[in-house]
């Protein structure tokens, strides 16, 4: 282990893996849409199967988090650099928090849209369009997470020590500082 590859670096990658799964609010989208479907089923049982679309779209968000989580967990290793760990944490948070926003949006739109479709069936197409826009939020998070994870995987084996940009200045100045009277007086 070196300063650039500490023993705790994989922890940040593991937290990114966890964030990708935990923060996607598929359950909220499913529950909120399911309540709307149950209320709609009382008024119009014939539209029951047609209005399951919000629940299906909420389930797709969980797949985004699962994909990123599997990719991050596949790259975890003891030789992981701190930069890789931080980038994988960012990737997990990216897909997780985007999934959180998408899940809430799908749940709210699904609930209201399904109830509205029960009263006016022509609202179905509008509900589907709004659900697609809500789903795209999660897709944006997935795209950003994949780009970030690709960048993190490019860092494997590229760990280098800090660069001394001023070797001539350092070789001339530091001996003078160490031999100055101020250093002698402190000893």
Automatic annotation (TrEMBL):
Family (UniProt): Belongs to the V-ATPase proteolipid subunit family.
Q: NCBIfam families, alphabetically?
A: V_ATP_synt_C
GO annotations of cellular component type: proton-transporting V-type ATPase, V0 domain; vacuolar membrane
The annotated topology with respect to the bilayer is: Multi-pass membrane protein
Record-given protein name: V-type proton ATPase proteolipid subunit
Cellular location(s): Vacuole membrane
Location of the V-ATPase proteolipid subunit C-like domain: 27-72, 89-148
What subunit structure does UniProt give? V-ATPase is a heteromultimeric enzyme composed of a peripheral catalytic V1 complex (components A to H) attached to an integral membrane V0 proton pore complex (components: a, c, c', c'', d, e, f and VOA1). The decameric c-ring forms the proton-conducting pore, and is composed of eight proteolipid subunits c, one subunit c' and one subunit c''.
Q: Which residues form a coiled coil?
A: none
Q: Which Pfam families match?
A: ATP-synt_C
Gene Ontology molecular function, alphabetical: proton-transporting ATPase activity, rotational mechanism
- On whether Transport is a keyword of this UniProt record, the answer is yes
**Does the keyword Membrane belong to this entry?**
yes
